[in-house]
UniProtKB/TrEMBL annotation:
Residues 17-175 form the Pre-mRNA-splicing factor Syf1-like N-terminal HAT-repeats domain. The keyword Magnesium does not apply. Belongs to the crooked-neck family. Residues 791-850 are annotated as: Disordered. One of its GO terms (cellular component) is U2-type catalytic step 2 spliceosome. SUPFAM superfamilies: TPR-like. Residues 807-826 have a biased composition (Acidic residues). Its main location: nucleus. InterPro entries: HAT, HAT_Syf1-like_N, HAT_Syf1_central, HAT_Syf1_CNRKL1_C, Syf1-like, TPR-like_helical_dom_sf. PANTHER family: PRE-MRNA SPLICING FACTOR (PTHR11246), PRE-MRNA-SPLICING FACTOR SYF1 (PTHR11246:SF5). This is Pre-mRNA-splicing factor SYF1. Residues 385-758 form the Pre-mRNA-splicing factor Syf1/CRNKL1-like C-terminal HAT-repeats domain. Residues 795-806 have a biased composition (Basic and acidic residues).
Length: 850
């Protein structure tokens, strides 16, 4: 049954379910908790009296934030899906106004009211409400209102209002200036946007909320003012961009392009060209130059094409138009031709001490002598020796050669004279200048003697007032030049060609006295004296060099000296020659001994005694490194065979087999055995094969075993063949055992001791599995191990016998004899075999079954 109640002169009905809540309200009219319980009940029952109860509660408790917030939220939810001109909107607005009488300090109420007014699109009224909210709330709560206010002014086309609102907001939050600039750009107020952007760029403490650097902001400012020259009137563009050029020296290419673009858009094309020219003459990096030059060339190309189109479409074009068009094309072509030179200028501005770039610049001016001279002059004045990248003296030399090529020898000499006074960092640079100067004089001398070149070399090698060290960098290079081997070498070459023997000897003696000679200088000195028939003096020169140098530097001198001495006297001074060889070999390292021992042995063979020669070879074997012994043994054996005969080489072969490494020893054994075979000593050859077999693994050295088998086929019998096969099996078993031992050691080192099976027992198991069991009975496998069992024997039955693939079938009378032969150990020496057995020998292919 429904009940009725009156409120504000009106009667309302309520349900019986609401009666308990009404009774509670009557008893507790000023309790917010009871009103909220009543309102929650009405919300759950979706009662139409919800708004009435809210009004009743607010009449009793007008200062309750919870009641006002719930009531306003309920009224706003009633506006869903309604038109903006619905009268209910005004009722809700009035409800907010009533609420703000009591709740004017509550930001949530203001936020909801402002949001509702923004949806209703009442611009002036909404703005007034936002302003009231800002006045009513404390400043610590303004940050909750301003975002809504800014969104409101951005959503409507009210630029003047928006600007004024943003200006007020920036007083509270100046860090959001970038948002203001974006808004100004969006509404077309570019002049004010540029002013604000320039303002924040000049603030060193400004931090962009979007993470932009100061340089990025500079670029944005330059792009803005350069692309809109007709809209920005309050700023002076040229000073601003030039200030950025001074400030950001590593990113100037884009700034220069922005400044030129500003003048292009302003219609000042000649001024833009001046900017481009200034830019390419001042930038110092290739990247900036590339940016500016590409923009410059593109501007010229577009301007030329546009002018060509205008001229072609104009039916009344005159001769002046054609001339102007030709001038534009010529200017564009000239710009493209200047690119390499301009790029070279950039590199030189980057590093003015770069010598190779100066040389490139000279080549770019090819055909322009005045420019070349100016470039060389600028280069030698600019490059400092201590900072030079490259060789500074090459600039002076190239400068002098330019005058020389043009026939101005006097100017070339002046350049060389100045070059000799430059404080180079290395003596070799100054020496190169003197040598180039002397070579120029040689190219232009007249008569039989180049006096000028000689005088120059004499000046260059003159002793200073005091002696200084060649590597003493505290002294100037001019003071240290007298010890330059380069200058002395050229001086010696000149004296050899144009001087006398006396003067040439004096030059070489000075080089030796100054202790700057090299082995090649000593050799050149000796060869010169030999050409002049001063043989003994040449030999003395070699001996001076030997006294100056140590091994291995003295190797070439000794080699030349001994060869020349042998060719000169041809054994006539045998004892002196022997003394020289002994002196040479006394301290000779093994690496260089081979050549001298061979020369020594050849001397003894041709002019001395054979036993002396053999003694030299024997010494050589002991003196040379291991890798050269094999070659020397071959020579030694050959010489002994030629002089004493083949039998005398046995001792040498024996020595070689003992000394050489395994691979060479194996080769030497085969050759030894071959020699014994040729001499008819078959038993000796077989003994050699048996001795060598110890180092011949059948899996690796199959060639050795094949040679031995062929030997036995030709010279042996059944017993020797069987012996060879037995040795082969034993050697193979030996190598297998070594490999298995190493495997077992590795297993033992990687597994715990208590969990490891005995290594020898494991080897026996492996040998039994592979059919290579050692002699005697193999031990039984341990418990818990799995061993392989041969399933099928020969003939298809398990007769308990394992077939040996290397077993030799012998046609004997009884099984007892066969067993005796199998168990008999054949000695190494040759065994006598009955002729009837030899006659029944089977082919080797059947005997050696694998």
């Amino acid at each position: 049954m429904n009940q009725k109640i009156s409120f504000d002169g009106n009667v309302y009905e309520f349900h019986d379910d609401d009666l308990p809540y009404e009774e509670e309200i009557l008893r507790n009219q000023h309790s917010v908790r009871h009103w909220l319980r009543y309102l929650d009940h009405l919300k759950s029952t979706k009662s139409t009296n919800l708004s009435i109860v809210y009004e009743r509660s607010l009449k009793e408790l007008p200062g309750s934030y919870k009641l006002w917030y719930g009531y306003l939220s309920h009224r706003v939810s009633q506006l869903k899906n309604r038109r903006l001109d619905d009268p209910l909107y005004e009722d809700v607005n009035n409800a907010f106004e009533r609420a703000l009488i009591f709740m004017h300090k509550m930001p949530r109420i203001w936020i909801d009211y402002c949001t509702l007014m923004t949806e209703q699109c009442f611009i002036t009224r909404t703005r007034h409400i936002f302003d009231r909210a800002l006045r009513a709330l404390p400043i610590t709560q303004h940050h909750r209102i301003w975002p809504l206010y800014l969104d409101f002014v951005k959503s409507h086309d009210i630029p003047e209002t928006g600007i004024r609102v943003f200006r007020r907001y920036l007083k509270l939050a100046p860090e959001d200036t970038e948002d203001y600039i974006e808004y100004l750009i969006s509404i077309g107020r570019l002049d004010e946007a540029a002013i604000k952007l320039a303002h924040i760029v000049n603030q060193d403490d400004f931090i962009s909320k979007h993470g932009k650097s100061n340089h990025q902001l500079w670029n944005e400012l330059c792009d803005l003012i350069s692309k809109n020259p007709d809209k920005i009137k309050s700023l002076k563009v040229d000073p601003i961009i030039r200030g950025g050029l001074r400030r950001y020296t590593d990113q100037v290419g884009s700034l220069w392009n922005s400044l030129a673009d500003y003048y292009i858009r302003s219609g000042l094309f000649e001024r833009a060209r001046d900017i481009y020219e200034e830019a390419i003459q001042t930038v110092s990096t290739v990247r900036d130059f590339t940016q500016v030059f590409d923009a410059y060339s593109q501007f010229e190309e577009i301007a030329t094409k546009k002018r060509m189109e205008e001229v072609s479409k104009n039916p009344n074009r005159t001769e002046d138009d054609e001339v102007e068009l030709d001038l534009r094309l010529e200017r564009f072509e000239h710009l493209m031709e200047r690119r390499p030179l301009l790029l070279n200028s950039v590199l030189l501005r980057q590093n003015p001490h770069n010598v190779p770039e100066w040389h490139k610049r000279v080549k770019l001016y090819e055909g322009q002598p005045h420019e070349i001279i100016n470039t060389f002059t600028e280069a030698v004045q600019t490059v400092k020796p201590q900072l030079a990248v490259g060789k500074l003296h090459t600039l002076w030399v190239a400068f002098a050669k330019f005058y020389e090529e043009n026939g101005q020898l006097s100017d070339a000499r002046v350049v060389f004279e100045q070059a000799t006074h430059v404080p180079y960092t290395k003596v070799d640079d100054l020496a190169s200048v003197w040598c180039e100067w002397a070579e120029m004089e040689l190219r232009h001398f007249t008569g039989n003697r180049p006096e000028e070149a000689m005088k120059l070399m004499h000046r260059a090698t003159a002793m200073p007032s005091r002696k200084v060290g060649y590597y003493d960098e505290t002294e100037t290079v001019q003071m240290r030049l007298y010890k330059s081997l380069k200058v002395w070498s050229m001086y010696a070459d000149l004296e050899e060609t144009f001087g006398t023997v006396k003067t040439c000897k004096a030059i070489y003696d000075n080089i030796i006295d100054l202790k700057i000679a090299t082995p090649q200088i000593i050799i050149n000195y000796g060869m010169y004296l030999e050409d002049q028939k001063y043989f003994e003096e040449a030999f003395r020169a070699y001996e001076k060099g030997i006294a100056m140098f140590k091994w291995p530097n003295v190797f070439d001198i000794w080699n030349t000296y001994l060869v020349k001495f042998l060719n000169r006297y041809k054994g006539s001074k045998l004892e002196r020659t022997r003394d020289l060889f002994e002196q040479c070999l006394e301290h000779c390292p093994p690496k260089y001994a081979k050549v001298f021992y061979l020369l020594y042995a050849k001397l003894e063979e041709e002019y001395g005694l054979a036993r002396h020669a053999m003694n030299v070879y024997d010494r050589a074997i002991k003196a040379v490194p291991t890798e050269e012994k094999f070659e020397l043994f071959n020579i030694y054996i050959k010489k002994v065979a030629e002089i004493y005969g083949m039998p005398k080489t046995r001792e040498i072969y024996t020595q070689a087999i003992e000394v050489l490494p395994e691979d060479k020893s194996r080769e030497m054994s085969l050759r030894f055995a071959e020699m014994e075979t040729k001499l008819g000593e078959v038993d000796r050859a077989r003994t050699i094969y048996i001795h060598c077999s110890e180092i011949c693994d059948p899996r690796v050295t199959s060639r050795f075993w094949q040679i031995w088998k062929e030997f036995e086929v030709r010279h042996g019998n059944e017993e020797t063949m069987r012996e060879m096969l037995r040795i082969k099996r034993s050697v193979q078993a030996m190598y297998n055992t070594q490999i298995n031992m190493m495997t077992a050691q590795m297993l033992n080192s990687t597994t715990p001791t208590e969990n490891t099976v005995d290594a020898m027992r494991l080897l026996d198991m492996k040998a039994a599995d592979s059919g290579e069991a050692p002699q005697g009975s193999a031990p039984a496998p341990p418990r818990g191990t799995i061993s392989f069992v041969r399933s099928i024997t020969e003939g298809g039955k398990d007769d308990g016998k394992v077939k040996n693939p290397d077993e030799i079938e012998l046609d004997l009378d009884s099984e007892e004899e066969t067993e005796e032969i199998e168990e008999e150990e054949v000695p190494v020496e040759k065994q006598a075999i009955p002729s009837e057995v030899f006659g029944g020998l089977k082919p080797v292919e059947e005997m050696e079954q694998d």
